[in-house]
Write a structure and sequence with these properties.
Four copies of one chain form a homotetramer. Chain A is α/β, with parallel strands linked by helices and 346 residues long. Helices cover 30% and strands 20% of the residues of chain A. Chains in contact: A-B, A-C, A-D, B-C, B-D, C-D.
């Protein structure tokens, strides 16, 4: 039996941080001992998240050495370019780190700097970091000291394309990912476009010219394809809080395969990927609050265009839930520990 | 240690039924052995509720004797005037029953018939039925064979008024409950007014002339007041799925009381009533998915009008969660068993 | 025939400003010649409001003398405590002013300062300012050079109570206004609570201890009552963009009146107040986009508590539309000019 | 000057009918003389659409000869397979008809029957019917007696692809239209999936295997391409009332063209197509309530995949507004007559 791990959460005032608290507060092998917030240090965590009144009885602490002295594992739920400044010292101090931000996701540090607009603070750690998508990297995650939890779009899109690309069934030069997200993926950013009055009753594309998740998705697909891939990625904003729906288009390059069977086989042993029956279409609410990716594969009119529909909750399988899944692997617990509860619907 | 109870859920295709399944599937003392649905018998429960794929592995069964043979406790999550036809036989067969519908809530059977428009099928059982609000009736619930789980509005409103009325601090002739609900309280009714295109971006009152929850609320308040009460109850429909917010108005009849202290004392030992700090204002999302009633008491301008704000999730503390709370009492388990998980936010 | 008025709009980047542009662009007696915005000067108005591409062909200008030189009437759609600095010079220059902000609404300048937290810049103008609710002040508005357009809550609440209070039918010591608003009333404020992820699927009260519209409502009701009134006002935030629904409670002080007839008579000649048939309940979407207040009067259970339901679009009859109604009166046009188009539904 | 046309609307209780009433009630050349509804005959139109109280003062009438005796033009806003039964007699009686339903859109009557599941009642009229998209068919519409107003998806998609396909710039074998719609496109259908509790906070694809608008889109694109086209069309449902956002993907077949210039030229003279500046991304709210299609053309990473973003209000440019645009052409009025008012935002 795994013993209880003492956990610190850095950046606990954001949405991914709140979701970590929800999941870890019910996890038998986890004890949250510190939640940091520079701005709110000294105030109860439950003041920021009233849904946790009576559940989390901690005050926020400043993110200094003291905060981490007593913990085994540190989760970063910070904006990008923050974790990279603190991770080296934590690893030196023998802590293990799960970073939910983008700092250690891209293996090409030049590309990282180009997309994030700053120099990387510890490029030497990038190679050591393990990309935290268990369906790609299960064994490596178990042994890692530094896990880079994937972005939300990459989770939905890479899992959706994986069976096709891995098996060489489609033209990887012409992949299209038309993805739609709820707004919580943007965190609590105070930007006009995220105001209720600006989002309600409207739908739009954004970042058509380029989105930071594009290189991350390409990196994973290229690894699966064993070579470069051509991907057009168009993200859209849906007037809802949670959920990603990726509609994926690819051109068949090989005939005669039963795509439904290919998908079912590919994910037969995955606890958190659910291939729906032929003809079904997943809805984002079917995974709301749950650590689950549900998907369906279609071939409209029996033509050469394959359409894959892949949904996740961006804050769970796309962030905090997947991080806890990695945590389970890292501590040798059952991978589903603390993650088996279904979401509420409606 | 309590042993596992075998449970049947009647009317499992509605929202309260789905919520029962969510809560009971994670409950250590419960094993759902049958979910009935006349229309969907033979099809997987998870087809109706894809969020339960991989969690509930049962087919719907027809609601006949066979369905109940193997169970200890039956939950009814049916529309009104259904449970009353089946309950007598179930009680005779030694089952215990928790009815989430309105059939056994009103002690005055004439009034029940007047509001629900049918004769009661088993008026002789009404007296035996225990009203399932633990904060009013804890001991009686523990011993009951037939529990009438309260309506959603009555839960929010009665809990909100209780400390004032019980202590005789307000004029009970002039109580006002201005209540607002999300649409899931109406269940899956196929009425035009519940269509997305008719509800989104709109707010309205309904049932101003009279709502079925009015006599139920009056019955409980009268018991607390020790005599008749005068209550104006105006329900409103909010463009959201879950949540009830009751704004309660009463005229102070006694001076010199510290209302904040009165409320904190009244609910000090209640696991599922949370009195917020002075000045706070609860939001329905603070209880979304959770079996919790959060409330705050205000006295604007230090005048004679007391304003109480009381919020619940209508499907949890207002329906399935409260039913599970009663279940815990009935089987001698810890009252919070299976109900301690916080809701997801945002 | 009235000639075309040249109009400047100050603070054209907010929601009330956008709504003024929408209404005035289709008004036969109005020509918008300047829209000011300190931050966006030099950029096209249609960049800020793409729905106006092809309709408004102006650039924002800085709010200096030059901007106003060429205009007859200036609309202020600014936050409070801005207009009061510019209005004196404009009046001196012979312009007429319609202020949509709160600067000239309260006749008691001490009270104004107490609620808005600053000294008033031109208290000598307060007496000259005419409160721009045509149903109260039609003749005075026609002659005014400075009109203070009412707040949104006050419009819905004062119009709703008016027939009862004016006729002395209710106890004015015990009035209750439980009001619910869409978020656009808060303007484009970048506050966390107005983010989509914080508002969607939630409902809450706010400002229970005191809201700036309280003294404004009291002032109008007191004028109608001919003496002080006691009012409890609790505002709530609805997850929608537009609409106010006021649920008003009063205790009957006089018997034997046909309240439906009282209301119909009171508003028989008002073009923008619609008394619904007995038993009806207005929805905010019934006035969305329209300069209209629809209301219904109820007496649940034929008791002594009167319930009035009053709905407006906070940006139209609660702001820009009412300002245009005043404009029509001021220039001698038909009061309904440019305001007769119904809103779109659904 | 065109004289006033007397208009009958068949099927006036649906959303397109309501939108026709809104637009025609403010149209200088239109007088609505009859609105039919079998179910609501004898009751005021304004009872069904309270936003029209005081604007439309008609009762619904039964859809018999009497209803049409007095009119010049009949608009059908009925479900499919209804208009085709009444149109022959109306044309014989000298009326002109604008059909908003699908009955006369497809030139291939076999295909029509296959998709709509019934035999066509008057196949001989199909050839005479003119497809009512002014940007394709302006002159023919002006002379038509029977206009088939286009579907909502086809309007957004065909207008979006038109410049590329017409100029032969893309591979027409591999067109993809990933389209997203608000729910009002489904009309007032009482289906569970359109309930607020089932749609709010969720996003899904539907009809992946085949949607009735697919043959309609293909028909128009084939005409533009001068030959068959290959189109994958995946519709999605957005939790909002109004708006369609089509994200269109095509592979460049010709190099060296300035796509922005191609689009601007193609639509330079169109009053209701707005090509946004390079780099812009339209939002559905920018056309809410307006008869306008706004679009933007992108080429991410300067690659070979062209992405076109095209938005309309499905009830206006996608239904009632486009029908009124056709009406204007048919009666020789200015094409923009009654359609120039911008939508309200927010």
């Amino acid at each position: 039996m795994t013993e209880k791990q003492r956990i610190a959460i850095v950046g606990g005032t954001g949405y991914a941080g709140a979701e970590l608290l929800r999941l870890l507060s019910a996890h038998p092998n986890a004890e949250v001992v510190a939640v940091t917030s520079r701005g709110d240090a000294g105030t109860p965590v439950a003041d920021a998240y009233p849904q946790l009144r009576g559940v989390i009885d901690l005050d926020f602490v400043a993110p200094d050495d003291h905060a981490f002295a007593n913990c085994d594992i540190v989760f970063f739920a910070t904006p990008h370019a923050a974790a990279m400044h603190d991770v080296p010292a934590l690893l030196d101090a023998g802590k293990r780190v799960i970073d939910l931000s983008a700092d250690f996701r891209l293996k090409d540090v030049e590309e990282w700097s180009a997309w994030y607009g700053v120099e990387h603070a510890c490029p030497e750690l990038i190679e050591r970091a393990v990309y935290g998508m268990p369906e790609l990297n299960r064994a490596a995650i178990a042994d890692a000291n530094l896990v880079a939890a994937p972005g939300c779009y990459p989770t939905a899109i890479v899992l959706g394309f994986k069976p096709l690309v891995e098996a060489g069934l489609v033209d990887v030069e012409r992949l299209i990912a038309d993805a739609k997200t709820g707004v919580s993926g943007a965190g609590k950013s105070l930007k006009p476009g995220f105001l209720f009055a600006e989002m309600q009753e409207s739908f739009k594309a954004y970042g058509v010219a380029g989105h930071r998740h594009l290189p991350e998705i390409r990196q994973s697909l290229a690894a699966l394809a064993g070579g470069n891939v051509g991907l057009t990625f168009v993200p859209h904003l849906v007037p809802m809080i949670r959920g990603i729906h990726a509609t994926l288009y690819a051109q068949l390059a090989a005939q005669g395969h039963d795509l439904q069977a290919v998908y079912e086989r590919a994910y037969a042993d995955e606890p958190f990927v659910d291939v729906l029956p032929a003809g079904a279409m997943p809805e984002t609410r079917h995974v709301r609050g749950a650590n689950m990716c549900r998907m369906a594969v279609h071939r409209p009119g029996d033509g050469d265009t394959v359409v894959v529909l892949s949904v996740i909750d961006n804050l769970v399988k796309g962030a905090a839930g997947q991080a806890v899944q990695c945590f389970n692997l890292m501590i040798g617990a059952d991978e589903t520990c603390g993650l088996a509860v279904p979401g509420a619907l409606p």
